[in-house]
């Protein structure tokens, strides 16, 4: 028990401190105050609330098996937890949509800061509207012989309403966000994959470019000559003479002409470097593509693994479809799935 308390406290403190640092960093540096970071700041605030409320009350109730916080907190703590968790889910969905708009449709207008603030306010209102029914269905009950007076949901007057509410929460808090997040990241992965496809260069060209650019010969000279620019060769020779003081001081016109040609040639060199980079960087871009796909799939997988056990457990409990072995340890399974859902504040923020 002591080790569990230490580990749990370390996780909660790490979450609180980490999210506070995120908020302070974004507030301090204007360069970080983007639309995406606005969503991340709102997510960090929600994660702090979850860590403070659930991270302190849940372990106390789990170990003591009583509710020592009174009737008022019995009503409001589950509401605060529900609002924070639902808001986090909606914010993660908003972040995925923002990434989708930035990457898949870069030419269309992106989300502005004022619009992002409205989205954050809308997410908060939706989360509050989804969680407010809990306020009217929380009660202090006695659970002998294992527990004393305990705070739990009490839908004894209307089991049908509980089932309908559970179904509504299942779709709004998990199914719809999961489908949106998955669709956005799949489209992003397809876009990245199509954007990384470039014309393959032959192995001889790649070897030629690598040898020239890694040797003692200036890469700029090779770039200018290898693409058929004869003036590049003469420019390189005259530049070397100018650096060695071999040109006469009176040749001002030649210097001006060299400067003009050098500007034109520099543009060609930049273009050629980009073309060569497409050949030399094929393996690197494939590695980046694999990493991007892995990270996107990891986001979807973590979201599913954190939320699926909790929402499925609550859904089966609302319809009284829980297996007998789960009913025998309903409190244990409920606490476990609750902890898994809270893990999203550490994995996805």
From TrEMBL:
Topology class, membrane: Multi-pass membrane protein
Subcellular locations according to the entry: Membrane
A Pfam family reported for this protein in Swiss-Prot or TrEMBL: 7tm_1
Residue ranges crossing the lipid bilayer per the database entry: 6-26, 38-62, 82-104, 116-136, 164-190, 294-316
GO cellular component terms attached to this protein's record: neuron projection; plasma membrane
GO molecular function annotation: neuropeptide binding; neuropeptide receptor activity
Keyword Transmembrane helix: yes
Keywords for this protein: G-protein coupled receptor, Membrane, Receptor, Transducer, Transmembrane, Transmembrane helix
Keyword Amino-acid biosynthesis: no
Gene3D superfamilies according to UniProt: Rhodopsin 7-helix transmembrane proteins
Domain G-protein coupled receptors family 1 profile: 18-349
Main location: membrane
Top-level taxon of origin: Eukaryota
Family affiliation: Belongs to the G-protein coupled receptor 1 family.
Protein name: G-protein coupled receptors family 1 profile domain-containing protein
